[in-house]
Amino acid sequence: MTSSFPPHLLDIASLSQPEVERLFAAAAAPPPAGPLRGATLANLFYESSTRTRVSFELAARRLGAEVVNINASASSATKGEALPDTMLTLAAMGLDFLVVRHPLVGSVAQLAAKAPPGLHLINAGDGAHAHPSQALIDAWTLYRRRGSLDGLVLTIAGDIRHSRVARSNVVLFTMLGAREIRLAAPLELLPEPLPTGPVRVFNDFDAALAGADAVMMLRLQKERMSGVKLPAAEEYHAAWGLTAERLARAGAQCFVLHPGPINRGIEIAPEVADGEQSLILEQVANGIRMRMAILVTLYERQAT
Ligand code: CP
Q1: What gap in Å lies between CA 129 and CA 126, rounded to an integer?
Q2: Mean of pLDDT values over 138-157
Q3: Cα(263)–Cα(236) distance, rounded to whole angstroms?
Q4: What is the mean pLDDT of the chain?
Q5: Beta strand residue intervals within 17-95, DSSP E
Q6: Which of 16, 99, 108, 277 could bridge across to 123 with cysteines, CB 3.0–4.6 Å?
Q7: DSSP state of 248
Q8: Does the beta carbon of 52 lie inside 6 Å of ligand 1?
Q9: Is the dihedral of CA 300, 112, 100, 11 positive or negative?
Q10: Cα separation of 90 and 264, whole Å?
């Protein structure tokens, strides 16, 4: 049976709502036994990662695939090999999945245009553009807790401008029926242009929290900043950090999300990160199930 699912996971915008719902259902089902036996996945990361790289590795292994991890800084990229040549080289070894994180916006989509049949590319983050598997994890985590995302009021706060996770989440939560997505950040950390959807901009974090069903905190992504003047850490935390006092204003029903890595005492207070309303480690745990669902769904499309 062939399926209409796209051959690659490049961004949320290239998925339909039924395809997202199919991934949610696959992630919720008991993991199938060994559907990827004989398949090979490579992680090719040109930026650091803990969650994404390890959870794709564990997801693939639990489904029966072989996994290779390529340290880009010790690969032939350092000898001038272009990214498409690295992909074609790995594909010639019989690869089925290539999970790529790269600092350039659009780099994984450009690879997908040159990918040989049978190779599935997964965008694990391209600059500040997209990180679709993380957004699917975030939305599924909240969906599991609430049963629906319809009518949701979500506050996204912090360094939105440099966040691929925020961009992917705005598209996904809009698709899944969010009533309002509040972008709360100082002016220099707001995205340009503003994303489309039920988006409202706040430059007062407390106002952005009032009545929110969930708040997603983002770290300052200094590796993608240039020319942004930031206040000292204490000053930033006072204005934009999620403290217990601030969260109390949102209410006990408000869940706290963070795609990680977290910077305690800067965008989030330790007692909030570790508190009862925090879903941060649940997001990490759900990451393996969602990435298993992504791998199986991509692989099934070529089954006959
Ligand atoms: N959320 C996320 O992408 O984390 P890593 O950078 O650790 O993969």
Answers
A1: 6
A2: 98
A3: 12
A4: 96
A5: 40-45, 66-71
A6: 108
A7: H
A8: yes
A9: negative
A10: 39
Q: What are the structure tokens assigned to 82, written together?
A: 């272009």
Closest ligand 1 atom to residue 125 Cα is: 3
State the distance from the centre of ligand 1 to the C-alpha of 260, rounded, in angstroms: 6
Count of residues for the chain?
Answer: 304
Residue 79: burial class (beta carbons within 10 Å; 0-12, 13-18, 19+) = exposed
User: Using CA positions, which residue lies closest to atom 5 of ligand 1?
Assistant: 49
**Cα 180 to Cα 174: distance, rounded to the nearest angstrom:** 8
Mean pLDDT of 155-181: 98
54 lines ligand 1 (CB under 6 A): no
- Dihedral angle at the C-alpha atoms of 194, 14, 298, 174, nearest 10 degrees? 50
Residues 6+ apart with CB under 8 A from 201: 182, 183, 184, 190, 194
**pTM exceeds 0.70:** yes
Q: Which atom of ligand 1 is nearest to the CA of 47?
A: 6
Instruction: Determine if ligand 1 sits within 6 Å of the CB of residue 132.
Output: no
Checking if the pLDDT of 243 tops 50, the result is: yes
